[in-house]
Amino acid sequence: MISRNIVSVSVVSQGASVWVPDPEAVWVSAQLLQDYRPGDHHLYAILLFLNKEMEYPVLPPAGLPPLGNPDILEGENDLTALTFLHEPAVLHNLRVRFLDYSSIYTYCGIVLVALNPYEQLPIYGEEVIDAYSGQDMADMEPHIFSVAEEAYRTMIREEKNQSIIISGESGSGKTVSAKFTMRYFAVVGGASQQTSVEEKVLASNPIMEAIGNAKTTRNDNSSRFGKYIEIGFGRRGDIIGANMRTYLLEKSRVVFQAAQERNYHIFYQLCASRDLPELRTLKLDSAENFHYTNQGQDVHISGTDDVVELQRTRNAFTILGVQPDQQMEIFRILAAILHLGNINIQASGRGGDRSYIDVNDRSLAIFAKLLGVEGAQMAQWLCHRRLAVGGEMLVKPITGQQANEARDALAKHVYEQLFTWTVQRLNSSLKAQREQPKSFTGVLDIYGFETFDRNSFEQFCINYANEKLQQQFNRHVFQLEQEEYLREELPWNRIEFSDNQPCIVLIEGQLGLLDLLDEECRMPKGSDENWARKLYDQHLNHSPHFRKPRMSNSAFIIVHFADMVQYECDGFLDKNRDTVFEEPINILRASQSELVAELFQKESAGGSLPNSSIANGSVRSGKRAHREHKLTVGFQFRQSLQLLMDTLNSTTPHYVRCIKSNDLKKPFLFDPKRAVQQLRACGVLETIRISAAGYPSRWTYEEFYTRYRVLLHGSLSKDDMRCSCQSALPDLIPDPEQYCFGKTKVFFRAGQVAVLEKLRGDRLHAAGVLIQSWVRGWLQHRHYQRLRWATFILQRYIRGTLARRLAWSLRYTRAALIIQKTYRMLAVRQLYLTIREATIKIQAFIRGTQARRIYRQMLTERAVVFLQARVRGWLARCSFRRVRAAVLLMQCCVRRRAARKELLRLRAEARSVEKYRELNKGMEVKLMQLQLRADQQVKASVFSWDVHNSVIPLLRLTMWTECFSVADVRAEGVLSLPPGLAARVLFLCVRQADCSGDQTRVKGLCSATVSAIKTTLKKHGNDLDVTAVWLKNAYLLKDFLHQHSPRQVTHLNDSVRALSDLCIQAYQQLLSISESRLQPIIVPAMLESETIPGLAGSSVKLSSGRKRAGSDPRPTASTEGATMSAVLRELSALHTALSRQDLPSALQEQAFHQLMYLLAASTLNSLLLRKDMCCWNRGLQIRYNVSLLEEWLRSRSLQTGGAVTALEPLIQAAQLLQMSKKTEADGQAMVQACNELSNQQVVKILSLYTPQSDLEERVTLNFIRIVQVRGRSEGQPPQLLMDVRRVFPVTFPYLPPPQASAAQLEIPESLKISFLRRV
């Protein structure tokens, strides 16, 4: 376990949070009940989860208990940013992120820690890849894509090879992490060749999983070999090739499986698919009936269909160029291995010293037929061996056990040769064809440190490889830590770290374990016992890393960097030799199968080290040559491992450490014991120890000033924060060894930030007490003033009451007199009014009678006058109509006569070629040719006169179309043309040709138009205005043809469909241009820019916000201009281009609906992956930016059509950041308000919410659970991020265009086609 951090005694006070050991949970949280004083031997604390007091001994070597980190750092995404760096803090932070936030990834400096959730998570889609592409990993949530992006960008920027080293126990998720890493590279670096190299790289995964992965007790898809894949990139950063190297295939699994385990997947896939017609010749049976597949007694994997998996494997072979007949050759060899295991070897002779195989053995016959060899010969040499005695060759029978061992050795050897050939075949398919890779990124998926109840040669090699990798890791971490100090120009002393070089020397050094093992293998009578004795004699009591077990003389113990491991010597020599007799190999070399012969043709006894994988050991012949054991498995593994280390040392490494969360394979179950064991084994705690040995806490001067300005006295200058911090820090921390000033940051030893936090808390507490005293005094003074004023008011009210009583008595007396007077007056007045009303009624009746009499007389006179006027008007109109009809008849006769004369004159002009030449100078030759053709048609026609009159306009329109097409497809000056001019001209040409009956000419003209527009769009693929021009013309021409075709012809439907497709292409090109311009500035403008004055200054960042330890700072791209003004400028450019061409408003609404969705999706996705942006004032900024977009849409009448609705998820996310997050009612209101966000998105934002000032509080886990339960919906998709690549369908509304005529066209003189008006 890592050492305790040296902290100030003042921090260990009453109420402080500490960690105490626990046998079950490893570490539990407790709270001190008293202050610690130097000299105390015990500390009293209360266990928080049990509410039980306990006594903690303060004695060496334990010392003070590890202190807990502030609550503000709970769930920190980088472990090295914690104030106190120790094992319990790391374990607790991983547990909180894993269980409470469902975050499986956490940074630990340069290491990405990945916990296996044993559940499919929606965090690996293409929208997540898009969100991480081009982003700095310090700005995003930890993710395997973030590491891949860092490696890819570093490779492009520095032109240096990269490596991603993925390690961990079996079942920790190494293979899945490697697959997602390769998938990220395949998406980000698309292949430049037509063969889709990135698809081939991904296709190699199913093949390698089929032949190299198997089910174990710890993992259903465990990789039983190590692999290093180099993905080559070209000059433009695209994938152009790949190469794979494999290490230490577990061949013993071919012939033996432990309980609840399986052989390699490919065998079960073949057995499950045995009923396929092409596989029936393999004579396969169920996997339960083969000896090599039924030993684990569990041939099925829950949730896996072996038939489907075989189809995936075969598809992958096809993608990689392996033909079906060659695939069947591979399947025949694999099936032959299964039948080889079922061959029945029987014992015979005295005492069973002989063995034999029945010649009628069915499995032997199938095996021989599949491999194309003689069954009798194979049966002979499986039960006999050839020896050289005295210069003569003797054939000696072997026992049944030896024959079985020879059979198993042959099966392992055949499988290994096939595995090696497959890897070589994959490499030849993935090899770069046209150019050599400029740089590469390697992905190393290798086994982690292993320790079992019984450890043998395989575990020894695996742990030896991990020792080498751990040494390289330690040195790299140390180097990065020192480079950080040099970059900040800090005075530093060398940091001591645990170098495991002595352990490596013990294994690979001169007379080390591998040397002694190879030496013993060369001995004629070498044995495991003799080797063990040599180990004891050479290293016992000489190396601190080598020990001997007390109760065993055939085992040894190595003290590795992670743990002590006891290895059993039994089987070491046999596995290191890996011997196969030569006679069965010679039979296979003579096989009739080309692939089988190829596998063994080039094999020799010595051989050289292959490039792609570890070869087998020796092939033993009858003559014991000195070369027999030259290349042992241990020697080859050491050489290939050294080659791997040289490759890694020449690259920039990136580390991913995969951790098993539990051994039960249950989703989101955290086992602290297993987690700590793996953290110690994978080097994560060593990274923290190296970081804690120096200055683990690092703050920029701005962050330090903002956080601790309450502790800074005197004149403070925000413009010169460094001087302010340097002048004030010595008063806060007297010991200058506990901090150091760099160029841009201030560095602190472990625990010093906690001291500053305590000082800041004390200062704030004292200020709070002072404020409370003043507030309480003010409240008391205010209370006294209120009592005093209340007394005055009561007195005033009493005196007023008495005065009002006197006033009321006087008022009552006066009121009585007034009432009497008024009553008498009302009686007299009532009598007067009655008399007056009767008089008025009598007068009214008399006057009404007289008025009605006069009215009836007036009505009679008016009716008489009206009748007279009507009769006289009718007579006048009749006379006018007769005169007008006569005049019109005379005019029609005169005009008809003039029209006939004009018609005769025009017909005469139409027959005159000379007149046509005068109007169309320069086109005489062409006109003569067309005239000649027209004359021929006229002669052939019965109605010669009518045909001649219809051909001449057609000839003119043909020349019109050809001239206009040449002038119109040019981009120069096209923007100055009236909107839709080209479409109107082309439609007139099409209509004229269609009316003449020339359908071939119509189709050719439409096809030429579509091709010309497509060529122009392709040429001007980045020009908004030109694309909008041709969208308008294609759209208008489509409407013209649609208006023309239903009434007259139907053969134009194909042209209408082609123009519809052309409209969609132009529309998509418009959106593509705008999206390409918007994409780089969306996140900086919507999230990062500060457009609200004064909002940035109010932000107070609480977390350290430090970058990953040792990572080189990426040169930031210039974000100048990446503001909302730039976004609105790009939107306005598109709107201007569409409006200038008078495109329908419905089409514009659809375009901006698509762009608003892109803005909202990109911003929301980035927000969901960035913890630094999830705060209250950032939500206010986002809402303000969205309001600018809404205002812009309203000002251009684009608020309908879904554009504003597309922004709703982003609006609700901004509201979510600003809403109260405390009570259950707040959670219910939040769920109702955020109906456009999924439950996963709401929970993710709440989990990432980071307070930016002391006025805010972190969201509690109970509140998150409330929201999670109340917001759970069955219909919601599990996807976390929005799909930024979603494309909404576009609809082009049909608007009947006005009738087009040549006379109405406004044709610019620059086109030189004004003669068209004469047609």
From TrEMBL:
<feature type="domain" description="Dilute">
    <location>
        <begin position="1007"/>
        <end position="1273"/>
    </location>
</feature>
<dbReference type="InterPro" id="IPR036103">
    <property type="entry name" value="MYSc_Myo5"/>
</dbReference>
<dbReference type="InterPro" id="IPR000048">
    <property type="entry name" value="IQ_motif_EF-hand-BS"/>
</dbReference>
<keyword id="KW-0547">Nucleotide-binding</keyword>
<dbReference type="GO" id="GO:0048731">
    <property type="term" value="P:system development"/>
</dbReference>
<dbReference type="InterPro" id="IPR002710">
    <property type="entry name" value="Dilute_dom"/>
</dbReference>
<dbReference type="GO" id="GO:0016020">
    <property type="term" value="C:membrane"/>
</dbReference>
<protein>
    <submittedName>
        <fullName>Methyl-CpG binding domain protein 3b</fullName>
    </submittedName>
</protein>
<dbReference type="GO" id="GO:0051015">
    <property type="term" value="F:actin filament binding"/>
</dbReference>
<dbReference type="GO" id="GO:0005737">
    <property type="term" value="C:cytoplasm"/>
</dbReference>
<dbReference type="GO" id="GO:0007015">
    <property type="term" value="P:actin filament organization"/>
</dbReference>
<dbReference type="InterPro" id="IPR027417">
    <property type="entry name" value="P-loop_NTPase"/>
</dbReference>
<dbReference type="GO" id="GO:0005524">
    <property type="term" value="F:ATP binding"/>
</dbReference>
<dbReference type="InterPro" id="IPR001609">
    <property type="entry name" value="Myosin_head_motor_dom-like"/>
</dbReference>
<dbReference type="Pfam" id="PF00063">
    <property type="entry name" value="Myosin_head"/>
</dbReference>
<dbReference type="Pfam" id="PF01843">
    <property type="entry name" value="DIL"/>
</dbReference>
<feature type="region of interest" description="Disordered">
    <location>
        <begin position="1098"/>
        <end position="1122"/>
    </location>
</feature>
<keyword id="KW-0505">Motor protein</keyword>
<feature type="binding site">
    <location>
        <begin position="168"/>
        <end position="175"/>
    </location>
    <ligand>
        <name>ATP</name>
    </ligand>
</feature>
<keyword id="KW-0518">Myosin</keyword>
<comment type="similarity">
    <text>Belongs to the TRAFAC class myosin-kinesin ATPase superfamily. Myosin family.</text>
</comment>
<dbReference type="GO" id="GO:0000146">
    <property type="term" value="F:microfilament motor activity"/>
</dbReference>
<keyword id="KW-0067">ATP-binding</keyword>
<feature type="region of interest" description="Actin-binding">
    <location>
        <begin position="641"/>
        <end position="663"/>
    </location>
</feature>
<dbReference type="GO" id="GO:0016459">
    <property type="term" value="C:myosin complex"/>
</dbReference>
<keyword id="KW-0175">Coiled coil</keyword>
<dbReference type="Pfam" id="PF00612">
    <property type="entry name" value="IQ"/>
</dbReference>
<dbReference type="InterPro" id="IPR036961">
    <property type="entry name" value="Kinesin_motor_dom_sf"/>
</dbReference>
<feature type="domain" description="Myosin motor">
    <location>
        <begin position="74"/>
        <end position="761"/>
    </location>
</feature>
<keyword id="KW-0009">Actin-binding</keyword>
